[in-house]
Amino acid sequence: MDVKTIAVGITGASGAVYGVRFVQELLKDGHVVHLMITEAGWQVFRDELDWPSGDREQLLRERLKQQFPGKLKYWTLRDFSSPVASGSAKSDGMIVIPCSMGTLSGIATGASGNLLERAADVTLKEGRKLVLVPRETPLNAIHLENMLKLSRMGVKILPAMPGYYHKPQTLDDLVNFIVGKALDAFDIPHTLFTRWGSES
Fold first, then answer.
1. How many CA atoms lie within 13 A of 70 on its CB side?
2. How many structural domains is the chain composed of?
3. How far apart are the first and last CA of the chain?
């Protein structure tokens, strides 16, 4: 299996579990993850996942790295020394999961106001794969126009809209469906959900 290097952004949109599970799956398969989390993202970790306050890097090691063989590097949003801030550093793309409408807007306008937005801008300018997983409802015209603009630039818009044809039994089944679709976007094999037409 080829080891991939993927930049992962987690923002303050509801659905922090999607980002956590995605990172865990990458690390489980031995990939390299450059992780960025917004301040609102950290708040959602506390509100939705009951993560305590404390040393953030230690929390990530405990909650994400665990025994997995992959490499996790956490970057604060002001640390532009990160490789993801420059196109000269090779990567296999970037995902923002979940992606708030504020971050989506910043990416759509090329704001580069923090490392996460800069990394997305680098991904776009280098022609690499960029996947955004918006989690918002309802959507207003500004949201839709920004997503259309990015889609026309080659960004994959992958809304957190789980399917039900695989007959989910638990909340984990619904989370795994979205995370599996995100892994599909990077051609990373997985068995997180039963595919349409599959017998098992």
1. 26
2. 1
3. 23
Reported pTM: 0.95
In a domain, 191, yes or no: no
Q: What is the CATH number of the domain that holds 90?
A: 3.40.50.1950
Q: Using CA atoms, how far apart are residues 123 and 79, in angstroms rounded to an integer?
A: 17
According to the model, what pLDDT value does residue 79 have?
A: 97
pLDDT digit string (tens) for 90-131?
999 999 999 999 999 999 999 999 999 999 999 999 999 999
Q: Across-strand partners of 5? A: 32
Largest Cα span, the chain: 48
Residues of the chain with pLDDT under 50: none
pLDDT score for 4? 97
In the prediction, which pLDDT does 57 show?
A: 85
Residue 161 lies in a domain: yes
Q: What is the span of the domain harbouring residue 26?
A: 5-185
What pLDDT score was predicted for residue 199? 61
Task: Judge contact between 74 and 115, C-beta under 8 A.
Answer: no
One-letter identity of residue 150: L
What's the CA gap between 190 and 64, in Å, rounded? Answer: 18
Q: Is 190 inside any structural domain?
A: no
Q: Quick one: pLDDT at residue 200?
A: 52
Q: Are 40 and 100 in contact (CB under 8 A)?
A: yes
Kindly state whether residue 31 falls inside one of the protein's structural domains.
yes
Residue position matching structure tokens 């017998």: 199
What ranges in 126-200 are assigned the alpha helix state H? 141-152, 171-185
